[in-house]
């Protein structure tokens, strides 16, 4: 064991401890930071919609756009194996003009997994319509203002609103990466007025 580097010895010790602890309790994870001890407040915020801006009855696309534009809080779930978190709390506000602000409620992550957590003018979205099953489709622009400065366009799909417009579920696809990329899924809530 004298020829192994300090890093190799440390990795071996960590693996030995993890093996020893298997079956002794919860899952042992050594390759990522643990969520904070103090969990963030996930109480749904008021939706903040203007009731006078509600669409006419029967306008399904108008209702999707009206319901989507709100302040939301909830959870994002990444595909298995994505790090630093497979699930993390987010707060996202979509406004009626097609802009959004989004933040991860843990440190070291962003609400849409990619891009900046700072609000910038390039953060925009557009809902483009409905598919046969009644779910919505859209586009979202993700800004990398803090790193490369580029803006990439991803897809929003499977957009579903509850009947009372207090729950929003959707899938975000970072489609600029390629066709086979998996979605980050969102389960968000707000309190309707």
Explain what the structure shows:
Strands 3-2-1-8-7-6-5-4 form an 8-stranded antiparallel β-sheet. It is built from 2 helices and 8 strands. The chain starts with 5 loop residues before the first helix and ends with a strand. The model is unreliable at 4-32 (pLDDT under 50). It has helices spanning 6-21, 60-68, and strands at residues 71-77, 87-94, 100-104, 125-130, 136-143, 151-161, 167-173, 184-189. The chain folds into 2 domains: 1-31; 51-189, Lipocalin (Beta Barrel), CATH 2.40.128. Helices cover 13% and strands 30% of the residues. With 193 residues, the protein is an alpha+beta fold.
Strand content: 25-35%
Low-confidence stretches: 4-32
Domain module count: 2
CATH architecture identity of the largest domain: Beta Barrel
- In round numbers, the mean pLDDT is 83
Order of helices and strands: HHEEEEEEEE
Main beta-sheet annotation: 8 strands, antiparallel
How do the strands and helices of this protein lay out in sequence?
Blueprint: H1 6-21, H2 60-68, E1 71-77, E2 87-94, E3 100-104, E4 125-130, E5 136-143, E6 151-161, E7 167-173, E8 184-189
Antiparallel strand pairs: 1-2, 1-8, 2-3, 4-5, 5-6, 6-7, 7-8
